[in-house]
Amino acid sequence: MRIGTRASPLALAQAHHVASLLGGDVELVEVTTTGDRDRAAPDKEKWVKELELALLDGRVDACVHSAKDVPTTLPDGLVIAGVPAREDPRDVLCTARGVVAGTVEELPPGARVGTSSLRRAALLRAARPDLEIVEIRGNVGTRLALLERGDLAAIVLAAAGLRRLGHDLDAVGTPLPARTFVPAAGQGSLALECRADDTATRAALDALSDRDAHDTLAAEREAVRTLGADCHSAVGARAVRGDEDRLELHGWVGAPDGSAVVTDVLQAGPGELPADLGRRLGERLLAAGARALLDQTPEVLS
Predict the structure, then answer these.
(1) I need a labelling partner for 29 at 20 to 30 A (CA). Which of 7, 11, 22, 73 fits?
(2) pTM of the prediction?
(3) What's the sign of the alpha-carbon dihedral 189, 192, 196, 198?
């Protein structure tokens, strides 16, 4: 099987993980995406478009994506066929040497905090309007190096990326509670994509799927799709398996400047499908005023 992947350290770590789960004869095919060439490119598909083109023209049989990077609408002929067990979905507050802060609230007044995420920026501003949010780019190693230089008091990174690259979370930062600092939809999950008519590859990828990871991703992605959100939206969605084996879904939508938020938590009804729960939560958020926040002009971060 030929697996398409970006060439970043994190993407390769993820692809090697999937290859090890598949076993057998697996070849990794590195593909350069728009996001690799231009990290300021505006669209979410910048991380997946070229990989999907490689699938469609037969250069690869499957692709490994960070699920949070995959648009909620896939190109015709492609499917997400597998979702392996989810890594930690939380965000992590990484502080510079000499800055003692285990929470956003404990950061020094006016602290400079780096991120490239509109969602993280809005969450930070909502919690601490005094913080100076600084746009940073680059892979995980580059961002940690920026923190070491001392120009920033803290940065916020995904726990999943840190763990997959072998970092000890206790050594690099403090995870932020997912109920209050709501992760991006799909954060911590891998999406294994292939051609819809490739039955052999679909079966192989489906065999790697974890039920909880599959269902939580389906609920979160449908909530975002219902909201009509994109990479210019400050949106979080986090599903967990709750009482009586039912999914519980928490959604969060914020104004880009953090001045207003809409949030809601729903539990699935008896027999309710994950996507139906996501749709219901998205509709409730819209009814509560989320559209007005989504339509606000975003900050520079993307």
Answers:
(1) 73
(2) 0.93
(3) negative
